[in-house]
Neprosin PEP catalytic domain-containing protein
Amino acid sequence: YHLKRLNKAPLASIESPDGDIIDCVPISSQPAFDHPLLKNHTIQTRPAYHPEGLYDESKVASQKQRTQTITQMWHQNGLCQENTIPIRRTKKEDVFRASSIRRYGKKTHLSTPNPSSVDPAMLNENGHQHAIAYVEGDKYYGAKATINVWQPSIQQGNEFSLSQLWILGGSFGQDLNSIEAGWQVSPDLYGDNNTRLFTYWTSDAYQATGCYNLLCSGFIQTNNQIAMGASIFPISNYGGSQYDINILVWKDPKEGNWWLQFGNDYVLGYWPSFLFSYLADSASMIEWGGEVVNTEPDGSHTSTQMGSGHFPEEGFGKSSYFKNIQVVDSSNNLKAPRGIGSFTEQSNCYDVQNGNNGDWGTYFYYGGPGKNPNCP
């Protein structure tokens, strides 16, 4: 029954080289429309406005650090037609791996880093560790970043490693609103160790609302080319070719919905603003960076990697980066974040280093190996 609810009847299905099945589902039959408040929703096919300054970025990135474009693996075997959207099919074993059917596709409570209240006693309570850059103290209407893509190794099946941006509203109590997008490796969620594009949302601090990708009603997808949760390809190599993805989330000033864009060409869809309380107006904090779960297997720190698995000191080609970090202000302009802070619970395990230069704008390197002699 649960699979029936998740998997909508497709017009066509495409088998991906990585074992996924991508269903091409009519745009109006997607999971979002199971939501009671979306019963009579008219799909907004495109945003009324993009943020100003989106396309006048300098295209003269130095040749040495040119990064190639990224597609999704399933494209090798076909595409979905117009007026359908690609949805990664949920298999029986995906649901069985979840701690309960009700929790399938959800994050655990308390997984957003709160830089202002790190109580060391809390560190291992929920086992989430972060290395992030953040801004707060203003009203934010979106965020953008170019994120280096890697395939970190995961020690235990129930751990994950992700690199994402967070758009946050409200307090870190029971009513936190969050919109998240980036890449993740999560054996629990996907049954493999591939690096995958993902989104997440919640309006009550990960308790009852929200989910990854399209695993519940909420996000309305409008794009027929990119599948949420599908494998990203290719991946960066240590000391070799580097690949990155652009993620932009912004609030359309006309309709008020939060839109997601992947790369320069793919507007993927939107979160209707009524899903949220605080974010119906604006965000009060933006975060960018990495998160891992540390279950402390064998009583010591996990060796699950964050980013490339290498510390920021190693620099380009070796450590993972976020670059051209921007926020969207109340006039719908993209601009560099002011007063950026950084935060990590245990810098000996995973670290973060901010920087600024012409080509990369505001950037940082982040990540690490987890368990090592200084992080027992």
